[in-house]
Design goal:
The protein has 595 residues and is an alpha/beta fold. Helices cover 30% and strands 24% of the residues. Helix 6 packs across helix 12. The structure holds zinc ion (2 copies). The site of one zinc ion has 6 residues, from helix 3.
Length: 595
């Protein structure tokens, strides 16, 4: 097998508009690889860790452990589209290798229900019938998500904190951790070669809103017995200190609400941050405010969380958003989606005046109880500016402690490294810079440099009692989801969109005599998106002339015209001319009428 991964991608450097680079792809012969793989099933005798996503970028987390003929899949997440994929909603890991080996998949363990860990399940479970294991809330949220995919029947099992299940040759224990969604787990997996500890996304919150602190004593026990391999998230590895407790957010919001009693309050947060929403609901009650939910994902998530008892509040407290204008400003709190500045969300619609009964003005206090996900900084700043321009007061996490990250900082990483004392280490859940930083960090915590592997998408790492080594890569990469269908990243539709967006288009219509091949109706040109008005006249005039010349030159007396060749000639001469004049290569659409 040759090592093949997607090369290239979009790069954005500071102070520069996004530069779109064309991706280059190397075609893989998947059938051949599968034959090779089958003939070479025991590629080694150790445990194999396979990375299908989540390393080298934040998003689409998906990892597999394989021992002999048993595969355990850990998380099946989505990623977000890059700037060179216009119109694409989601990116998912290329799961074709796993699908081709589906009979070996004994189960799917979910660490928690964030989209970057569960979002690709609908595109995996359509083919793979293995049972999905996770917390009660994770399973409930996945079930909610799958309602949009009625053909998929999921087998699932909810596991309590500290519970364990046997999945093939793996004994998987679900260890309670704090994160920005309840029901988050690390996994302590006993394998035939030793214990593998997968951190999931975590922080250590000594004053959590509900439930316990991350199960440090269990980590200590595991460390004393011996952890062979530690696989740890790396999101905030560069940040010193401890992550702020969720409780501090509640105290800050309390102070803000106390000092803004007459304002109408609008709060936005991540819909899945159930305990944050709980704190906001409790404060609304304290300050005698009715709560109106706005945004579908907020309503769905709260309904599910309420059903399984993760949140508790008085139904009388909630009013329909349609009735929001019937309530005095001082007695209303609107809780909406759109903290990332995304279009068509509750906040976006409010600021654009699209929600008829909510007009933003100077008596509004808008609280962003969230932080921008990397890549969204610009859209968040944008929406904050729009609220301020309408006269609202806006509080966001740079100004006040209205948000706490769900991810550990360095002190917390030190604690878990010291408790687990692993022999081998693999950083995950991060961009390359986070993974490399975590490598050095692990060395400073006592892991031997030769005992660490920094993986990339497609990496296969083999671990035995006394060794860790990289094997040949497995087929991996990204696919895109457009609507609900999965395509290759380099498909023609996206390429066309990219070309249309970058270079515009030109329709050219003319008539040709079907016997002589000579032009009879002179060409009409309709250029869009690549010629500025001051040059339009001269370029169009020249373009018409090159088309007339090309068509008439191609005509041969007594021969019928070749329509395809005429189309291609037209495209070629226009592409050349437009490139010479504008340095752009618009999509050319010739329409030739037979006369
Ligand atoms: Zn994550
Ligand atoms: Zn997460």
């Amino acid at each position: 097998m040759e090592k093949e991964t997607n090369v290239g991608g979009a790069t954005v450097s500071e102070g520069q508009s996004p530069k779109i680079q064309k991706r280059t792809f190397i075609k893989r012969d998947f059938k051949k690889e599968k034959r090779a793989e089958k003939g070479n099933a025991s590629q080694g005798k150790g445990l194999q860790v396979m990375f299908f996503g989540g390393v080298g970028k934040i998003g689409d987390n998906m990892t597999a452990l394989r021992y002999g003929d048993d595969i355990l899949v850990i998380d099946v997440g989505v990623g977000f589209a890059e700037p060179d994929m216009p119109g694409v909603d989601l990116v998912i890991p290329d799961m074709s290798w796993l699908k081709a080996h589906k009979e070996m998949i004994k189960g799917i363990a979910i660490t928690h229900a964030h989209e970057d860990h569960i979002g690709s399940l609908p595109y995996f479970l359509d083919d793979v019938k293995a049972t999905v294991y996770g917390s009660k809330l994770s399973i409930a949220l996945i079930e909610g998500k799958l309602r949009e995919f009625p053909k998929i029947k999921m087998k699932s099992q909810a596991v309590n904190p500290g519970g364990a299940v046997q999945i093939g040759c793996f004994n998987v224990e679900f260890v309670h951790v704090n994160h920005s969604i309840p029901g988050s787990y690390a996994l302590a997996i006993t394998t035939p070669v030793g214990v593998v500890f997968v951190s999931g996304d975590f922080k250590i919150d000594f004053t959590p809103i509900a439930g316990d602190t991350t199960d440090l004593s269990r980590m200590g026990e595991l460390g004393r017995k011996g952890v062979l391999l530690f696989m740890c998230e790396s999101t905030n590895i560069e940040r010193p200190g401890m992550t702020m407790s969720e409780r501090v957010v509640g105290q800050t919001l309390d102070e803000i609400m106390d000092s803004h009693r007459n304002n109408r309050i609008i709060v936005t947060s991540f819909a899945s941050n159930v305990h944050r929403v709980q704190q906001i609901m409790d404060l609304a009650k304290k300050y005698n405010r009715k709560v109106a939910f706005s945004g579908r994902s907020m309503i769905n998530t709260m309904e599910i969380a309420m059903k399984i008892g993760e949140v508790k509040f008085d139904h009388k407290q909630i009013i329909d958003i349609e009735k929001a204008d019937k309530v005095k400003d001082s007695e209303l709190l609107i809780l909406g989606t759109g903290s990332q500045g995304q279009e068509h969300t509750a906040l976006d619609r409010m600021v654009k005046g699209e929600i008829a009964n909510i007009k933003i003005g100077s008596n509004d206090l808008v609280i962003f109880s969230s932080s921008p996900v990397p890549g969204n900084e610009k859209s968040v700043t944008n929406i904050i500016n729009q609220f301020i321009a309408l006269g609202a007061k806006v509080i966001y996490d740079d100004l006040s402690d209205v948000h706490a990250s769900g991810h550990a900082c360095q002190t917390e990483f030190m604690i878990v490294h010291k408790l687990l004392k692993p022999r081998f280490f693999i950083p995950m859940h991060g961009e390359i810079k986070h993974l490399k930083y975590h490598e050095q960090f692990a060395i400073s915590m006592g892991v031997k440099p030769q005992n660490i592997v920094v993986p990339h998408v497609g990496s296969v790492v083999e671990v035995g009692h006394n060794y860790i080594k990289e094997l040949k890569d497995v087929l991996a990469g990204e696919k895109i989801v457009d609507g609900k269908t999965v395509y290759d990243v380099d498909n023609a539709v996206v390429k066309d969109r990219l070309q249309l967006a970058e270079d515009g288009l030109c329709v050219v219509v003319f008539g040709v005599n079907k016997n002589s091949g000579k032009m009879v109706n002179l060409p009409e040109l309709i250029p869009r998106g690549f010629i500025y008005p001051n040059e339009l006249g001269s370029i169009v005039k020249e373009a018409r002339q090159v088309v007339i010349d090309a068509v008439n030159n191609a005509a041969t007396e007594g021969e019928k015209p070749d329509w395809n060749e005429l189309k291609n000639t037209t495209k070629k001469v226009l592409t050349n001319l437009f490139f010479k004049k504008t340095k752009r290569k618009p999509v050319i659409i010739p329409i030739i009428l037979e006369v």
